[in-house]
Amino acid sequence: MSAPTVLAEYAPGIHASIPELEYHTLPGLSSTGIKHLLDCPARYEHERTHRTEKKAFDLGHAVHELVLGEGMGIEVVEADSWRTKAAQEARDAARAAGLVPMLVADHARARVAADAVLAHPDAGRLLTGGMPEVSVLWDDPTTGVRCRGRLDYWHEGAHVVVDLKTTARSAAPRGIDRLAQSLGWHTQAAHYRAGVEHLTGRAPRFLHVVVEVDAPHLVSVVELDADYLAIGAADVRHAIDTYAHCAESGEWPGYAPGVHQIAPPRWLDSTPTEEA
To answer: Which of 192, 191, 193 is nearest to 238 (CA)?
Structure first.
């Protein structure tokens, strides 16, 4: 997608009016960058210099925009697939203009999912009365590394951050812990909370609104507990320190050499099931 070629200068603070595409051009370590650093510094450096918008994110971008009222803009292409040349040209033109191209059917899916969020008794209330798409910029007090985050929804008075998540899996609260872990929700929450706390003197409450992109478009509201957030905070601290070291040395190593022993995850039951 196209992006502004001139970087604006923004002081550390909470900014409510930075366009999304401009935000992504700003310097600073984001929660996505932290996830890449936790994989390995080489992953971070590659993604930093080869940033692309993944098509799989289009549906999520659309749901966000339909719920929050702000985003990159949606271009609905009147076609039932991307197979035709006309549809492909319309798609490419939309991306070149910085818009999210969507087929009619996909846009309808996004609309139903957004409506489900807004109609939910808890999610709908959490996503009204505040400020959408708020950018947070701060300098890490330990290393001086510039950090940034993009809050989906910010309730300044209540000091609450609401993060909207779309998923092709189940949004059932009883099983969402594995989804949260695999996608790094705990590191994102910890990173954003650290930024808001640094700027305001108080860590915010951080809530996730989760909606299924497929029917029946079920919605849940979840909150990571203190232990989960503490793990996220430790991971964020490690990632920022790693970034500072790599930036100073100019070296961005990959995975450690040698043979790595892999143990089963704790949730995997190794006991064979006896047949009746």
So the answer is: 191
